[in-house]
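DM between two lab members

TW: hey, do you still have the Olfactory receptor entry open?
JB: yeah, one sec
JB: this one, 313 aa:
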Amino acid sequence: MIISNSTSTHHTAFLLTGVPGLEDFQIWISIPFSFMYLLAVIGNGLVMAVVAWDRNLREPMYLFLAMLALNDVLLSTVIVPRMLLIFWQGPSLSTFPACLTQMFFVHALFLSESAVLLAMAFDRYVAICVPLRYATLLMGSFISKVGLALVARSVAVVTPGVLLILRLHFCRSNIIHHTYCENMGIAKLACNSYALNSIYGLTAALLTTGLDFVLITLSYWLILRTVFQLPSKEARTKAFGTCGAHICVILIFYTLAFFSFFTHRFGNHVPRHVLILLANLYLLVPPTMNPIVYGVKTKEIRMRVLGLCSQAK
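TW: and the structure you got?
JB:
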């Protein structure tokens, strides 16, 4: 696991221990996490299937929803299988390249989830505030460009974080008290300063996820202003109905993300096992809840899913 010479020590593998302090209970903790992962994969898989199956759902709103579902499946799959292995079999070794790879995809997929939510907010803004320009602004080529842009943004933002990890020298413990590899969890094991890693991570988070949240909030402020100016109660109810599911998803995602982020940064007296559980929940709860929210709130998705299930029988 460790290669040494006279001047430094370099780890070739890290040991992921799981949830510190709750080792005796991890087998029980794995039950709800397994259930949530199954719900996330099956639910989001059904959403992607109905959008691909029904040509009537090839509208931007549903294409963005399919992007969100795909991102959710990938994000939960990057984290949960290794986490369950740790819960069932105990601490697990992860090679240095494998750890960096997992770190890259965890952060990149989280950023792309935020970007998809921003794109969905823009879609609702155009549909409600400037409906006459909807068909020209949100064409098929635009959706493809958005998909490429969110992938490019995630890669461009996360890659420097990985390169900053590569500049560090590891001469202390190779034990990561976590269920997956993440930026600061690795950086804090370094024997040289990781201040630059911390500054870049905070700046990148504020300029991506933080900015996304500001723009989404602005979009919905403009949407609400337009909705309240509609002449009839029926029109206002219909407008609110088209946004209800998206607002629920946004609240779930950003509430958990910001709560976990600020707790990690400023919750010095919060027990470590609470921080680790929060770090897992804010990445796993949204993929689990998103298809449920859209299934309940969106009639088109709900009816298509029921039709797909009845055909399977």
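TW: got it. The beta strands are 2-4, 9-11, 13-16, 92-95, 175-176. The longest strand covers residues 13-16.
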